[in-house]
From TrEMBL:
It comes from the Bacteria. InterPro entries: Phage_sheath_subtilisin, Tail_sheath_C, Tail_sheath_structural. PANTHER family: PHAGE TAIL SHEATH PROTEIN (PTHR35861:SF1), PTHR35861. Residues 409-512 form the Tail sheath protein C-terminal domain. This is Phage tail sheath family protein. It comes from Saccharothrix syringae. Residues 232-405 form the Tail sheath protein subtilisin-like domain. Belongs to the myoviridae tail sheath protein family.
Length: 520
């Protein structure tokens, strides 16, 4: 109780009886894989042009599957994606201006940094300032770099009126490190070498092992307190991620390590319980039946779904068709479904966008293989979500399955698993106020009211079954869920049960003939 020591009028602000629980987002994706360039830390991109600025866009899509998959994510309604670039090399290209002087470094490791060139000149206006120009080439040109070659660079960045005084707003590292997508500028506290202008562009250099295909450990990554997390470990540190995809897992070069990478994806989803893995079948699995499908499936889990077959889209580099695993495109549909209908709606019966709409030649249409109804009958029961071609009926190419890779009926459907993820994460975040509150009846009652208000809205949104909220869910937080030992040990248990809506997977329409009786 507040303590009052002198006469007067006092105003007290009382806490709300119900603490609102805000539903967490479910449409943010996390991608790990190979890109042309860029940082290895998990970086948020909110559009395809932003991805291009950071990572270089589509680059050799026969080998680098991630960029074109992210393009498919945004084409199908995705809005937010964290990218964790995976690379074999840990060495970063750099150019040092004298011993103990400033240095320019690529924003991420790998040989791509050797195609960055920089030039330092006098500033345009301030005689005591300098200008830093940065070029990035997809293909490294011969030296020297004249103005014609410079104009052909893939990325051109120009920082003018930079100063060396850290107290000024134009301090060089402050502007470059916040404004550049390809370099960072390291500035010693007390540089022992001056930054002298030079008229010719100079390429960054790199030492160490040559670039190679990453191993399973590179994809799985690790959390390093000094260097930062990489790979899947970098995505694990981002709470907002609700969808997880690694399109490169089905790259032929990944065959020996595919199991480890996919296993790490599923392990992360099952451990964190706030995300869902979208998996692909490798290319070339034509017309396999249910029994033959099993060896190609990834570990059984209610936190994962698998899609088949690959989709065909245009390679923007050549204008020619290219086959791409569908996980990125499907992740975009998940995001679109969540933002327009809700996470409780099965992410299926949507037309895929960003793929071919016409056959390139007979037998080469939007899908690697056309799956027949009979083949689908064998794939659906084993948890393979098929992408079907309904163009003949005027309905385009659609995702025609919404099952997890888990066979048990309780967690068979993608939307049921993801609805529970949504509710669990929302209640978990929205009930943090309970920590260190008295573990007694008033706190339990307030928690019940708080959760009830949230679940009632979930039910009204159509995510739960039942004509009344009593039929849709129950909440228990009292002495029936806690023993005296629990209370004394500081443990508060709240039991929540939900009746989720399941998709109408099999729609049966029954018809019979009606006989018109003769009028008597």
């Amino acid at each position: 109780m507040p303590e009052y020591l002198s006469p007067g009028t006092y105003v007290e602000e009382l806490p709300a009886d119900v603490v609102p629980i805000e539903g967490v987002g479910t449409s943010t994706a996390g991608f790990a894989g190979l890109t042309e360039r860029g940082p290895t830390a998990a970086t948020l991109v909110t559009s395809w042009p932003e991805f291009e600025r950071w990572y270089g866009g589509v680059f050799d899509p026969e080998r680098y599957l991630l960029p074109i998959s992210v393009q498919g994510f945004f084409a199908n309604g995705g809005l937010r994606a964290y990218i964790a670039r995976v690379t074999f090399s840990v060495d970063v290209a750099e150019l040092r201006f004298g011993e103990g002087g400033p240095r320019v470094r690529a924003v991420g490791p790998g040989d791509w940094g050797k195609r960055i060139a920089v030039r330092v000149q006098r500033a345009t206006l301030n005689p005591n300032a300098f200008r830093l120009q940065v070029l990035y080439f997809t293909v490294k040109p011969g030296e020297p770099i004249d103005e014609a070659k410079a104009a052909g660079a893939t990325v051109i960045e120009d920082f003018d009126e930079l100063v060396t005084d850290p107290t000024k707003s134009q301090f060089a590292p402050s502007l470059v490190n916040t404004g550049s997508q390809i370099i960072t500028l390291d500035w010693p506290k007390t540089p022992t070498a001056a930054l002298e202008p030079f008229d010719d562009f100079r390429f960054l250099g790199i030492s160490g092992e040559p670039e190679n295909w990453p191993t399973a450990d590179h994809f799985i990554g690790k959390a390093d307190a000094n260097k930062g997390a990489t790979g899947l470990a970098a995505l694990a540190a981002v709470d907002d991620i609700a969808l997880l995809a690694v399109p490169d897992a089905v790259n032929p070069a990944m065959q020996a390590i595919r199991g480890k990478v996919v296993g790490a994806m599923i392990e992360q989803c099952e451990k964190l319980k706030n995300r869902f893995a979208i998996l692909d079948v490798e290319r070339g699995k034509r017309g396999f039946d249910g029994k033959a499908a099993k060896p190609y499936l990834f570990p059984r889990s209610d936190y994962a779904a698998i899609y088949y077959p690959h989709v065909r889209t245009l390679n923007p580099m050549t204008g020619q068709p290219v086959l791409v695993p569908p996980s990125g495109f499907v992740a975009g549909l998940y995001a679109f479904n969540d933002t327009t209908r809700g996470v409780h709606k099965a992410p299926a019966n949507y037309e895929l966008r960003g793929i071919l709409t016409e056959d390139v030649r007979p037998g080469e249409g939007p899908l690697e293989f056309t799956v027949s109804k009979g083949q689908h009958d064998t794939l659906n029961p084993v948890g393979v979500n098929v992408i079907r071609d309904f163009r003949a009926a005027g309905r385009g190419v659609r995702v025609w399955g919404a099952r997890t890779t888990w066979a048990h009926q309780e967690w068979m459907y993608v939307n049921v698993r993801r609805l529970f993820n949504f509710v669990e994460e929302s209640v978990n975040r929205g009930s943090q106020w309970v920590v260190f509150e008295p573990n007694s009846e008033p706190t339990w009652a307030r928690l019940r009211r708080t959760v009830d208000a949230f679940l009632e809205q979930v039910w009204r949104d159509g995510a739960l079954m039942g004509d009344s909220k009593e039929q849709a869910y129950f909440i228990r937080c009292d002495r029936s869920t806690m023993s005296q030992a629990d209370i004394l040990g500081g443990r508060l248990y709240c039991l929540i049960g939900l009746a989720p809506v399941r998709p109408a997977e099999f729609v049966i329409l029954r018809f019979s003939q009606k006989t018109i009786e003769a009028a008597g």
